[in-house]
Amino acid sequence: MGGAFSRPWRPLPKNNQDTLDFLKSYSPRNHEATHLRILLIGQTGEGKSTFINSVDSVLQGRVANRAPTDQHVTADSFTKKYKTYKFSKTNEGHYSFVINDIMGMERTKGVHVEDIKLALRGHVKDGYEFDPENKLEEGDLGYNAAPELSERVHVVVTVVPAGVVSLLTSDMIAKLRDIRLAATALEIPQLAILTKVDDACPKAQKNVNNIYKSDYLKEQVYKFSQLLGLPVNSIFLVKNYSSEINTNDATDAHILCALKQMIVFGEDYLSHLND
Length: 275
Known about the structure:
Elements: H1 16-25, E1 36-41, H2 48-60, E2 83-85, E3 97-101, H3 113-120, E4 155-161, H4 170-185, E5 190-195, H5 197-200, H6 202-206, H7 215-228, E6 235-237, H8 249-272
Parallel strand pairs: 1-3, 1-4, 4-5, 5-6
Antiparallel strand pairs: 2-3
């Protein structure tokens, strides 16, 4: 799996509290939006729901498990519905951002790419259960005909395990590119997170502080950048909380780094709608 750099090739903020304070105080400057909406996309079992739980864990200061996950190896998506996750502040309401989980993308039984495109524009109602056999159509019960700005997606995040970047099929890359082009046409910003870094790199498994010191993981970031056409500075490495029973500052730092950039990109998009 290669060697390691003596210094991180991407430095992380030294103080998690600064990022937590930023997230706590964040509110969209565009007053038409009550919150900023982040949409996670990717194949089944790639860490979308686990990332939502990890974000909740960081914000709560304890390991949380709100988004259902499935450790069973299966081709079917465990997430069936379009679900919005809000995050509670301690006795202070909710954070001003939400994350949407969606059915995984697969060759046959997964969510339709066209359904994801509808979600980008806010046409998929919260709680809608995706049908792999039939695309959502205008007039269906799950179709939102007149979405408000808060119901639209403000930033798209592709989730892929670091160890499977080289294994992505041409069909899956084409689907991800299709969604990327649709989001770009709507001027929606896009990022990616490479998850399960501890499974992909023994050095990262040994010490989470080695994530951005690993040349193997850096190679995967650059490889994914070439495959999807995303800039390297829009791709983040994340160790999700999956086996831990307590949170720790080092794991928090990587999650917070990615999350803050999602908020920054999404806020840029919302702000520019008023230009």
